[in-house]
Amino acid sequence: MSPLSRRRFLGATLAAAGAVAVSSVAGCANGPGVRPPKAAPRPLAIPPLAPSSRDAAGRRVVELVAAPGTSSFLPGVATPTWGYGGLPFGGPTVRVARGDDVVLRVTNRLPETTTTHWHGARVPARADGGPHQPIAPGATWEASWRVDQPAATLWYHPHPHGRTERHVHRGLFGLFLVDDPEAQVDLPSTYGVDDVPLVLTDRSFAPDGSFDEQHRNTVGLLGDTVLVNGTVAPFLDVTTTRVRLRVLNASSARSYRVACDDEAPLTLVGTDGGLLPAPRTVTGVVLTPGERAEVVVDVTPGRRRVLRSLSHDLGAVNGVARAAGADDSFDLLELRPAARLAPAPPVPARLSRETPLAEGGRTRRFVLAHNRINGRAMDMSRIDEVVPASTTEIWEFANRHTLPHNMHVHDARMQVLEPGVAAGDRPWKDTVAVPPGTTVRALVRVGPHTDPEVPYMLHCHLLRHEDDGMMLQFLVVGAGQRAATSVAGHGHG
Amino acid sequence: MVDRLAVGLFRVVVVLHAAMTVVQAVAAGGILQASAVGMIVHQAVGGTLLLVAMIQVPLAVLAWRPGRLPAWPIGVSAALVVVETAQVALGATGVLAVHVPLGVAIVGTAVTLAIWVVRARPSAVIAPGALATR
């Protein structure tokens, strides 16, 4: 080979390698951004309350059926979806009171095995609805327990190992509200009128109208159209001077910063685990997938206001942040106050009287890297932690990865240790964001239900990461109980 | 004949190795944009790259004898194997503060070596008694 053609060969090889690499990588790199909807604004759909009955033993019984359906999000286009309770997408709002003995029966009419997890609920391990409580197609699963936790906005959704993103993305999720009759607080509480749920999901649509389930990046599956309670471009007619919004981030990967378009302040009154000790005035609330926030918005007669999601800082490198949707700003809901509004009482100065968790317990450390927790991938047969019931510990989540993660602990009440927030002011959480390169320390208390054999889960709630194996199993045991060394009924893996 | 074959094989592997390091760099940029493809490519090419670097060492020896190229590429190829082994471990454990600059050094070395090897001329064979004639 002559020197000149050798050089050309070298140059051509290196250039070709570079070009192929760049084009294949640049393809699905960034997030889709959010497109303003073309459809005219529609009234916000309000998920109906799930019907319940009393059985002979006085227990409150709720029946849910998970089934495929067809939804119409875009004009003239049908989208195949899954839903609970006869809804094609989403599910009815289950509402229970502290002290109720509840029985939840879920019937699976889907073509796949699913599960139903009560996210944020304090339940016996066998009722938790995680990967160890599968519901085969055609089968009915029953979970029963006595509700004993403060009033809160919880939710329910599938949790099958490796397929959670798929099931939740298709539409299987619903709200689960707990009321506490002994601790009533004077907040707006007429469901659907001045106490309104906002379930945020983002979806992209394929040309045939079905959900795009292909374009994932390493953060997860994001969409370019935001659905609020399944409605595109919704508006809400407001008839009172104050409205309470219970916001749930039911997206697989997108996080939101909920704020008003005119920078009016929001009053934060509740988080995942219930009401705050005292209301907090904020300009915006950041919610990563799985988190909830209850905010009260003041409105003036006749003056429209738009609730938006604004760009926010996830603590990640700009390329990752863009792919995670953190740079996107878009409308969520238009509030349309009537010309005359019924006066609402002011937000009370004192909301929750729950005793804050005490510091001083042992520390458990979880290192998050490469979609693994402490270097391990989820293993259905392995017990990773044994935690004593009703004891407060400090759990440290160290994110040593370039991707954002957010950690959800089943059966737990958590309070994040933050500088500048006094012990008596800490919000109640069950899902916490852990930005890249940071360590989040939280007081964690599990129990009081104990089970030496059946585990609960702790995992990243970016659903793609969870499905990839970013999940560990823990047992909650009582004094004198001997924890199992592995989960029965599962072979290796 | 054998000498030209040895040098030719060495050239091909060195250029292939350099091209793969360029692909690694591009894939790494993709990871920083949360590209799923970038992650898959970076992990797949990473392991294969180490194998190619290992094959490069005996070929560097053959390119020196009988190939008549200088000996220093043998040392550079061996060093690349050592450094790339460390690089795989650093990437797997997420020590990016070392993994990234080391990656830059590997790409620089590999591409420089490739440019050199394409232009290099094996030293001339001196026939016995040739010098005596002049």
Automatic annotation (TrEMBL), chain A:
EC number: 1.16.3.4
Record has Signal as a keyword: yes
Catalytic class of the enzyme: oxidoreductase
Keywords, comma-separated and alphabetical: Metal-binding, Oxidoreductase, Signal
Family that this chain belongs to: Belongs to the multicopper oxidase family.
Domain of life, per lineage: Bacteria
Species, as recorded: Actinomycetospora chibensis
Region annotated Disordered, chain positions: 33-53
UniProt xrefs under PANTHER family: BILIRUBIN OXIDASE, CUPREDOXIN SUPERFAMILY PROTEIN
Signal peptide range in chain numbering: 1-28
PROSITE patterns named in the record: MULTICOPPER_OXIDASE2, PROKAR_LIPOPROTEIN, TAT
Subunit-structure text: Monomer.
Residues of the Plastocyanin-like domain: 70-182, 363-476
Classification of source organism: Bacteria, Bacillati, Actinomycetota, Actinomycetes, Pseudonocardiales
Catalytic activity entry: 4 Cu(+) + O2 + 4 H(+) = 4 Cu(2+) + 2 H2O
Biased composition (Pro residues): 34-50
Protein name: Multicopper oxidase CueO
UniProtKB/TrEMBL annotation, chain B:
Keywords: Membrane, Transmembrane, Transmembrane helix
Lineage, highest ranks first: Bacteria, Bacillati, Actinomycetota, Actinomycetes, Pseudonocardiales
Protein name: Uncharacterized protein
Protein origin, superkingdom: Bacteria
Membrane-crossing residue ranges in chain numbering: 44-64, 71-90, 96-118
